[in-house]
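Re: that chain you flagged

S.,

Sorry for the slow reply, it's been a week of failed gels. I finally had a moment to sit down with the sequence you sent. For the record, here it is as I used it:
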Amino acid sequence: MESSGPAVIFAGGDPVPDSVEALLPRAALVVAADSGLDVARRLGVAVDLVVGDFDSADPASVAAAVAAGAHLERHPVAKDATDLELALEAVLRLGRSPVLVVGGAGWDRLDHLLANALLLTSPRYEPLRLRWLVKGAEVAPVHGHLDIEAAPGDLVTLLAVGGPAAGVTTAGLRWPLAGETLAPGSTRGVSNEMKGSSASISVAEGVLLAVHIGSE
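Prediction finished late last night. Pasting the structure tokens below so you have them in one place:
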């Protein structure tokens, strides 16, 4: 399996809209985290690798993926990592970047939703240059710097994760920050707005989670 270029990871959870298919990078390695295989199949996206314990993926989807040439990476049900974390480990091992995560939000499992959000901020996965499309939002960890392309009026929320985020500076947002500190648990960074079509966010120390929500 070629180990360069972008990757897409489909996570389990609620179905994603058909419009997501147009946002997927071309010539990307496509990885399904267990029942993320069903999400990919509903979009008509072929999967190259399926990772997980296979406790939730539709067996028919698994059989169809294997018949189409997908590789399976099977893990025990009693394991110390979620299927999404195992998928991230797979693309990290393969040297893939950037990585787009699709799905992974099922409101019947709030614990998984929160775990997925925190997982993406791990410094271990900084080389993956992660983005997450979930519930109509685009989420990205900020390890140092992040550029956002969006529409004027779109909402941008910045949340400190794992400790204070110091030296936070923004450009292109309605309420700018200039070398300031955002503390975990603070809502100061919630519901900022895009002034134009681009914005930049930088942080000197710590990690931010940036959540971009379209205004339409």
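What I noticed first: The chain has a mean pLDDT of 92.

Talk soon,
D.
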